[in-house]
Amino acid sequence: MKPTTIDLVNRQGLQFFGSVNASISHELKNIFAIISETAGFLNDLTQLSKQGKKLELSLLENCSNSIAEEIERGFDTIRQMNQFAHSVDDPVKATSIADTLVLAVKLTGFLSYAKKTHIDDAAKDITVLTSPFLLQNLIYRTLCALYKSVDTKDALKITFHEKNTDTVFLKFSWNTPLAWKDFPDREISDMADALKAEISITDNTLDMAVARDNDTLSAALTGGKQ
Amino acid sequence: MTDIEKIHLLMVDDEEKFLNALTERLKLKFFDITPVTNGEDAIDVAKKAQFDVAVVDLQMPGIDGVELLKILKKSHRFLEVIILSGHATIDVAVECTKLGAFKVLEKPCSFDKLVETITEAYESRMKKKFEKDTDRMKQIQSLAFGQSPLGILRELKKMDDNQK
To answer: Does this complex have an ipTM over 0.85?
Structure first.
């Protein structure tokens, strides 16, 4: 049976929220691990210095730079976590495609199997009236599927433009041709249906056409008839 | 102290800065470290050099920690492998232990805990290597309790034959 849009947000959405939070916590653990070991190394150097060993200033400089960089990385991660948490504030709203793509690339970037991904920064931003959370979920899952499928050394490129007044067109491309298996899966297909998005694939592109104004989503997500 | 007298550690982690910081700290102790950032390089260096203990991150792109553990244990009979994991769940620990990991540690773990675990792993390697050598086994088992992990490591290293 086809899930309702509310089901997509509740069941798959909760799973999505959990998995993103897990990857963020993993990223933060890595950051703390680096800070902890660098601070420990500084302490080791201090002890050695007390025993009369010459202290190399360049080592101290490297350590303090490393700690400062990790703190900045931590702040950046928390900014993304905050932005992601606020994606459920409004069931439906005018949503920036550029912002959604940037956040999805950053959040998927925490995954160990993520690939280098470049978003066309020359593209003019476009907004769509849709569910920001479901759109984020759809793009995140699409990126995960691509990262798992494309060649290990390959990179992804994402471009987007307004196809016509009703549709926004997102293109994901890569170099090495790919034999797709089981894509899009049922969860991605259900989400695409709810978002009025159409996905088509070739061996080195994935095109996603998203409706600019999804007027049925608002009622569906606030308990009205779908 | 020459490198031959040190414990040879293979450290594998795709977090390069974590790897570098830990390498610098361990170098100040009793260890000769070979740091690598991926499973493929770990397999290559393990073919060319002798390692006593490997410390392997679980989540890495390409060959992950579980896969690397299988490969290392298959091709290096006495190598002990410690797994570092950001998600050290019971399931992960059970799976890795079944595959021959010496221990699974949650990341970040304290430096002292890591050194203690490496010491235990090295002791385990020595016992496996010399299980038929009664005299050496007696020596290993008689190592004084109350010694620091690094003290035990030094004593164990003196008894090793430096063979793979």
So the answer is: no
